[in-house]
């Protein structure tokens, strides 16, 4: 079983929809949680960064972390065709360097 | 543009060969990370360097090695290449290499082993 599980999709939604992307994890020691966006043939780009449990909002994006359930989510409001990409969750521990453990990514397509 | 540069963009080589991938971190960043992205395994951490010293190691094969030079650029050396080594290789950099640091990824090097 992988440390971080993520539904690979693909997920197809109409423009303007609210998108919910999720990851579950097994290692309760993870403290830092990130969402990266990766366009085809490009490097991952950081979207959201949260520490421990709670919510964080940035424009149309909201990240939620529920450490008790070992579950993190990314919500995208008013989705746009330009949001079409693969979304990767990532997490890391405290101490011992800064290794990121990634989910496999969810492919999102926002259609006109 | 993240500020992290990687060369070459594409590399095609044969099994058994050796290649070197190069990464230049963002200006001022002291830590460099290498990741491998394949279709079946996703994005996997290989190794981290901080100011020239190895800081953390992931599931990096013995055939692979890396180093970070005094000017902070890094090289990933892959030898005795196998078909399964075909993947995207990403370099990332961060300020200090501490746990809370944000990692910025380069555009990647696509390696094809024939």
Question: Can you describe what's shown?
Answer:
- The complex is a heterodimer of chains A (112) and B (114).
- Chain A has 112 residues and is mainly β.
- Chain A has no helices and 11 strands.
- In chain A, the strands form 2 sheets. In chain A, strands 2, 4, 5, 9, 10 and 11 form a 6-stranded mixed sheet that branches.
- In chain A, strand 6 and strand 7 form a beta hairpin.
- The model of chain A has no long low-confidence stretch (mean pLDDT 93).
- Chain B has 114 residues and is an all-beta fold.
- In chain B, the strands form 2 sheets. In chain B, strands 2, 4, 5, 6, 9, 10 and 11 form a 7-stranded mixed sheet that branches.
- In chain B, a hairpin with a 5-residue loop joins strand 7 and strand 8.
- Chain B is globular and about 35 Å long.
- The mean pLDDT of chain B is 94.
- The chains are: A mainly beta (112), B mainly beta (114).
Question: Which stretches of chain A are poorly predicted, pLDDT < 50 over at least 5 residues?
Answer: none
Helix content of chain A: under 10%
* SS-derived structural category of chain A: mainly beta
| Count of DSSP-assigned helices of chain A | 0
Taken in chain order, the helices and strands of chain B follow as EEEEEEEEEEE
Q: Profile the largest sheet of chain A.
A: 6 strands, mixed
First CA to last CA of chain A: what distance? Answer: 37 Å
Percent strand of chain A equals: over 45%
Return the structural class of chain B: mainly beta
In terms of quaternary structure, the protein is heterodimer
Cα Rg of chain B: 13 Å
Overall shape of chain B: it is: globular
Greatest interface and its residue counts? A-B, 27 and 29 residues
Task: Tell me the number of helical segments of chain B per DSSP (H or I, 4 or more residues long).
Answer: 0
Strand residue percentage of chain B? over 45%
Major sheet of chain B, described briefly?
Answer: 7 strands, mixed
**Helix and strand string of chain A, N-terminal first?**
EEEEEEEEEEE
């Amino acid at each position: 079983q992988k440390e971080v599980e993520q539904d690979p999709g693909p997920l197809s939604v109409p423009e303007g929809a609210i998108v919910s992307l999720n990851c579950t994890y097994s290692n309760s020691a993870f403290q830092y949680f990130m969402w990266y966006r990766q366009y085809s043939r490009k490097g991952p780009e950081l979207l959201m960064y949260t520490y421990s449990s709670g919510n964080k909002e940035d424009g149309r994006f909201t990240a939620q972390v529920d450490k008790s359930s070992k579950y993190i989510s990314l919500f995208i409001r008013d989705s746009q065709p330009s949001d079409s990409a693969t979304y990767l969750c990532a997490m890391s521990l405290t101490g011992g360097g800064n290794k990121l453990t990634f989910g496999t990514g969810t492919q999102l397509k926002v259609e006109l | 543009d993240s500020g992290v540069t990687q060369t070459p963009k594409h590399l095609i080589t044969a099994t058994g060969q050796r290649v070197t991938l190069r990464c230049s971190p963002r200006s001022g960043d002291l830590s460099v990370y290498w990741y491998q992205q394949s279709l079946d395994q996703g994005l996997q951490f290989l190794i981290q360097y901080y100011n020239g010293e190895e800081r953390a190691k992931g599931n990096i094969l013995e055939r692979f090695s890396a180093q970070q030079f005094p000017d902070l650029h890094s090289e990933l050396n892959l030898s005795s290449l196998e078909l399964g080594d075909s993947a995207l290789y990403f370099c990332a950099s961060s300020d200090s290499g501490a746990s809370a640091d944000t990692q910025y990824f380069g555009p990647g090097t696509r390696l094809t082993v024939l």
